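Researcher: Last one for today. Full complex below.
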Amino acid sequence: MADLAVSAEGLAKWFGEGETRTFAVKEVSFEAYFGEILYIVGPSGSGKTTLLSMISGILRPNLGKVKVEDRDIWSLSDDQIADFRLNKVGFVFQDYHLFPRLTTVENVAIPLILKKMDWKEALDVAQQYLEIVGLADRAQLPPVKLSGGEQQRVAIARAIASRPDLLIFDEPTASLDGDTGKKILSFVKGHILNERRCIIIVTHDSRIYEYSDRIMKMEDGRLTGIVKGGSDEE
Amino acid sequence: MKTGTAVKGILRIAFKLLVNDKGKFAALLVGITFAVFLMIMMTSMFSGILTRSSATVLNIGAKIWVMDPAVNTVANSIPMPDYVLDAVRSIDGVKYAVPLYSGGALVKLKSGAYQSVTVIGLDDSTLYGRPQLMAGKIEDIFAENAFVVVKDSEFRKLDNPEIGTEFEINDHKGIVVGTARVTTSGLFGVPTLYTTYSRAVTYIPSTRFTTAYILVEPKSDSDIPRIENAVKKLGYEALTKDDFIQKISDFYKYQTGLGINVMLMTVISFIVGLSISGQTFYTFILENLEKFGALKAIGSKGSELVSMILFQATFTALAGYGLGVGLATLIIVTAKLRLPDYAAQITYWNLFLAFVMVLVIAAISSYIGVRKVLKIEPFDIFRG
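Model: Here's the assembly. Have a good evening.
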């Protein structure tokens, strides 16, 4: 059994109060392990993005606990949470959110610069990560000059540049065609995942389910089941 | 890893985000440059006018000026009776006191044209307050009908006279015995003639009293308050050079429309700059809001985002300020080369005022940006 990376216990999140209170996530508990790719799938509005935000230190739950490497992240102060995200979590956003006014290598270097690394050193390290994602020759281009798949890979390079234990992907294939999406996930599984890293992906793209180790299904804010390799396990 | 270099790294990101958005950066610079340019032009013009309004005070250079309390500007003197001069001379602490005549006259040039002039009559025995001569000898001022002409921007209005040039002044003959330079030209665009006090009161029709001002040299600066009090008891006013200049400035600022008009134009310039820069900076922040949210999600702290925005606003403000000052200086210097009467002058006060206003523009613009950025939740980035 691999080491426990993330443990969520009785997580609940609602928005609004009184009659307008709406539950986004209702008492969800699960565990994610190092060395695995865990998918969170479900229809729109099922609460998967809210759940992802709570386990990555972005959205404070109303109820429940999130432990990352046995540390209750929501007992931390705002600045400590920011440090936690910077040091422990890598994000690949749905729209990538690359900075069009910076070069590709500067985009990748952002987390390193936030981690107080010297500018030149950060660019050198970022260049190495661009090599990992196969975009070393695009280093000096602005992201807008890259294709969607290339931008996705830049976003991945940025997410892994700070060597996080937990990697969060939000709808990674939403803006990509089927083949490119598969290539990206194949690359992630082959090159980014390792035994000291846990990858959690929110998606509703069934074409990439094959790259998952486990799939967590959600509906109406509740966890409805966990399957493995496309077949029901529990 | 060093903290200093880390801060520099964040600010470097901020810098690149700002200047690489060339359109917005240019719009921001244009807005602030334009505002600074207008503010400096307005206040420099005002400053130049105020300086010129005190030209006689500056050029004569006396430490203390005694006058009628109702005098507001040096040009509108109210003659004082002769006994005042004697009374001032007898005040303890007065080293010496001399009369000064200041008045207007009409000069008939050789061409037959008439030209208004200002005549300064210097004390016959001391010539206290005499200008620095460029040509001629000062003792020639005692010669018959002698006048010294100030060679300033108005000099040409007397047909560029030379030593020996003759003219008529109030039906008296006048002859140029020298040309002089002064530190400051007058405000009203008329040439200035220097002569002796006795000739001035003889040649120029005047009221029963002829002493426009009494120029006083105190024995020491500590005697000045005592002299001021003693003159006040006589029913007159003694002002130091600086106080007299201030009185003239206050008159133009508060008792004419000049001050309020210039202030209004300066405020309008400020509002124009604030509007352009504030709006552009706000749009810049809005366009980058998601990116700031992404930075927050990645792990940037609120204080780091605030420092980025403050840096961007301050950098733009200072760059715009530099360009605005440079442009205003260029225009003023060029205008002065072409227009001798152009009064504008840039002072440290003008620069400081524009600097403060630019900082206010930067502060307001960044405040709006900071509020927006601090409000954005990283969760909004996930929600798209």
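The helical segments of chain A are 48-55, 78-88, 104-114, 119-132, 148-161, 178-192. The longest strand of chain A covers residues 4-15.
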